[in-house]
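Narrative of activities, Objective 1.

The group set out to show that a structural description can be obtained from nothing but a protein's sequence at a throughput compatible with the screening campaign. Below is one input-output pair from the validation batch, recorded exactly as produced.
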Amino acid sequence: MHTLRLLARSPLFALTAIASLAIGIGANTAIFTAANALFFAPTTGVREPNRLVDIGRTTEGRGFDTVSFVTYADLRDRVRAASSPLEAVYGSRLEPVPLSFGTSDGAERIYGEQVTPSYFEVLGVRPAAGVVFHAGEEDVATPLRKVVLSHSFWQTHFGGRAEAVGQPITLNGESFVVAGVAPRGFTGATILSSDLWVPSTAMSRGLASPETLRSREGAWLVMSGRLKPGASLQQAQAFLDAFVADLQRQHPEIYTRIGLRATPASRVPGIGSEFVAPFLAVLMGVAGLVLLVTCTNLAGLLLARAAGRSREVAVRLALGASRRALVGMLMTEAFALSALGALAAVALGWSLTRGMSAALAGVPFPLAIDLAMDWRVLAFTACVALITTCVTGLAPALQSSKADLVSDLKSDASAPRRQRLRHIFITAQLAFCLVLIVVAGLFLRALGTATRVDPGMDVDRLEVVSLDLTFGDYPEASRAEVAESLRARLAAIPGVERAGLARMVPLEGGGLGLGGLRKRGTSGPESRIDTDWNVISPDYFATMGIPLAAGRNFEPADRQNAPLVAIINDRLARALYPDGQALGQQLENGDFRPGRESVIGTLTIVGIVRDTKYRWLGERPAPFIYVPYAQQPTRELHVFLRRADGFTAPLETSVRQTLKSFDANLPLVQMRSLQSVADLGLLPQRLAATIAGSLGLVALLLAGIGVYGVTAFAVASRTKEIGVRIALGADRARVMRMVLWQGARLAIIGGAIGLALALGASQVVTSLLFGVSPVDPATYAVTIAALAAVTLAATFVPARRAASVDPLISLKAE
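Output recorded for this entry:
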């Protein structure tokens, strides 16, 4: 209580210190909350999650990818038959599967997760009602038409009634039976949120086909397993290595460069270690810089406060107080400040996590990330507060306890030893602040550069309508006609200027990946062309605003049973035919391995179009090829609608009505603007720019507060000296320049150190920068100018106060 009363006597100091701590610790708390949700918090409803491992495919020792169902089945049988460190394994499809759920009002789009029947057994999930499917039902020869509902879906669509178990439901136009209901809070083993779980062996429309289940090469499952009690991750890896070695001997044409890697289970398998963890590490580094600025700021304030209490400390020492007692007293005050700051940081961190949750709500697929502040987050916050106290409080306490009784009893708080330490803290604070602002500036510049990139197409006024023809009962042979009819219906909606369709959405981040392509008449591995492709309708280029550079567009005559044709982009044309004679040339597409020549098709180049960005705005121009949808129809397709100029009314209602009138069992899988798709591709840069920019401004504010506070204390402690100078004839402008130069000198030293640190820090985040050099001159120039302006503003008020000192009043006060 005595400590709190002392702090209450200096409310401005206490509030400044607590606010600084709240910002520094709160930023770290918010980012650790996200890391905790993704990597540390146990998954609700899962038994002993520490024994779970993720198993992914590697290529030449790199990556973490999916495997085929056959590979999973081989590993499952190996685990059962041999002495293995694994109890069992399961497979799941990473991406959410849109499903058509039949209701009395027509089809409703829901999301399901396709998993092997052993899924719930391996996770140890017990149903809230009914039963789950199990490993004994895993038979490729027999379709398993059961589903397990999520608890929330059971509540919203079945009213939580127990009799829902055993009822038939319609998915993608086919009948399934509700086997059971997952426990409350269980949303799956990953961050994806599912309405229900469907067996991988369901073999229904829109799900894995019998051919997919029997293909050894088709990779679509990520595997996970449960370690036996006492087994280690290293033992599991050795078991997998031996398993892969056998596969390589049996199927060298498929597994020669392939391996399997086991990692601790994560809610973001594979990409957790490849992307999410490094990205969070960068953000934590940025927040750590803010905390360093906070620490130096608070240390400077504590030292300045101790300097103002120098006479009190000297009196205590003169009366016999020990140095240990004085250090304890000062550290107690620091601990009290940290405790109050940590409480404020929890409130601030909670507010920031709510903002993160709101941002994640805009992601175009269902996520289940619980950004709750559990005991791990609170323990992390407490540890950060404790470390902050030790870092910030110990040096000022030790320095202040070394009292010079003669000068301190005379209230000469300007002793050089104190000034030097305060200057060190200010210099460090400014250096760390400059590093943080440079990193924030680089992210902002990268984002600005990305938004100005020409994607090669007209992104404005484009809406993307995503559909899946397997939701309707259409034979495969009629897909092209059905898709064209749908396109025409959607193009007739009032307010729609044009409509075109394609298999893939540009700028979404994914790709089809053409299996094999080469110029006709060439052979050998060196003849293979690495390129991406898309399947489109003739209206696609006009709808997207992609100009035709040469040749012709696809025509109605380019249909099935007609000669195969293709349109390539400028880059591929220049790479294959430098003489400019690409039109009419032929390419071969297919499987070029010996004995499979019968599946090679011949494509005739009929046109050349402008280069565009395909996967995301930051990619370099790459070879690309387009083929007509009428010749290679797919079940998944996207219709691109170009709004009429000036038409801003929402289209989704009209689109849904059009689809319902066309086929009530054909739901709208998804609808979004192409601009939002492009923006989503820049999500890492946008998040980094937003977070680093916000924290950079906060750090700049903290630096300004710190410089102002310490400079103001310095001026207050030198009031007598300044009064004497003025009394002896010193010009007030000169006094003002003296104080300003003191701040400027520290800014110059801190800026020089900060620039050296920033050059190193900018190299760490190079992978997240787009079109911006880590040593971007504009960023560094603006940062230096901002730091100079803040330093000037922070020292101007104390300098003006020093210049207005009345020598008579100051000397009388002494």
